[in-house]
């Protein structure tokens, strides 16, 4: 989080605060040691809060960090394919496919936001008996309303969709099978995301971490075997990467089902119980999920337009862009991890009717996350060229990627702050304002500036990233404004 607004706020005079200080000082003289006792108590409370935050966040941090790291390794493997043309087209194919996958999973996550918020509230309010119904509703809705249509359309109109997203002929040639296999694996990935959301809402962040570490390790091994044709397997290139990814998601689904059946979790599903429609749960999913879904749609539409602008710069520029995005995914790690922690802890605190504790959890998450994000920014600034060289030997790509990473190094604290604060707002069920922030920052700021920088000022790929930089700053400001209003503390969840 940027320090400026915080420092400035200290110079505003609040008469109520002044009265409170006078009152406490008076007690200090009347009752010796009162002030010191309160300070000690506050110190203990803050320490307990910090420990709870770290306990909740560190498994997510490890999971997301290593997951992104594994994703970087996957991209590096594709970049090291002997044929440089095939390597560039394979990376571009992954970038194009990811746009569809991200849209699908973002919509799934929009419903999962509601599931996480509900489960966290129910745990805080000691109403764990409602969790089974939440799980049933969110899985059925995501699979039927979201995954099934994308599955059918994705397999039937593969080339048309990829072409619309900016894929050139070489990308289509190598990437259409990759696209189809990933779409099939989306069924399992969506299921996994829903279960992870419920587990994290209950405060269980270790189970998703353990399962993801195992399947991601399996995916990396599978990628190496199937991309390069090791251990007697055929050399499948980018298609092999898709097979490995989808199979690893299937394995994750099996592990999650096994975990639930064994009764090792707060999720207690009795298959003998018939599904019963619950209007309150549906209300919560719709009330929280629709703004979250619209937020993701606005975000992805903005990204699609943005990607189209970037793809017009050619395959090499687009591949460079994908490499930078892949590297940048590491920088989202602290924001994502502590954002998930903030979401769960905020929901549980509000469920227990302790809004002050919810606020303190968000602030603590934000402080710790900012320190980590700042460190990542330093690495990007000084070692960007070295990191880029792990993906490619092309000196032009490495030079351009290094410039981009230097730009994004400066935005890390702001990026992290908005991700964490937005996570806390979603945990409270406040998804309307995050929709407003995304709509304005991505659809207006990023898209308009990208068009201006690329098409009008001819700044090329670096111009696109100037637009992304601006998007992050504007989004940080809008999210912080909402947090300061305290209106998120009074969102009702049935």
Name some characteristics of this structure:
mainly alpha; 494 residues; single chain; globular; 82% helix; disordered N terminus; 17 helices
Structure overview:
This protein has 494 residues and is mainly α. It has one domain (39-487). The protein is built from 17 helices and no strands. It has helices spanning 3-9, 15-30, 34-79, 84-124, 131-156, 158-164, 169-201, 206-228, 238-261, 279-311, 315-328, 333-351, 355-389, 395-409, 412-427, 432-456, 461-485. Helix 6 (158-164) packs across helix 7 and helix 10 (279-311) packs parallel to helix 16 (432-456). The longest helix is centred in the first third of the chain and has 46 residues, at 34-79. It is globular and about 60 Å long. The two termini are 33 Å apart. Residues 1-13 and 17-41 have low confidence and may be disordered.
Shape: globular
Uncertain spans, ≥5 residues at pLDDT below 50?
1-13, 17-41
Structure summary, number of beta strands: 0
Helical proportion, percent range: over 70%
Q: Find the structural class using helix and strand composition.
A: mainly alpha
Biggest pleated sheet: none
Q: Report the end-to-end length measured between terminal Cα atoms.
A: 33 Å
Radius of gyration: 24 Å
**Average predicted local confidence, pLDDT:** 82
Tally of domains: 1
How do the helices and strands follow one another from N- to C-terminus?
Answer: HHHHHHHHHHHHHHHHH
Q: What proportion of the residues form beta strands (DSSP E)?
A: under 5%
Query: Helix tally?
Result: 17
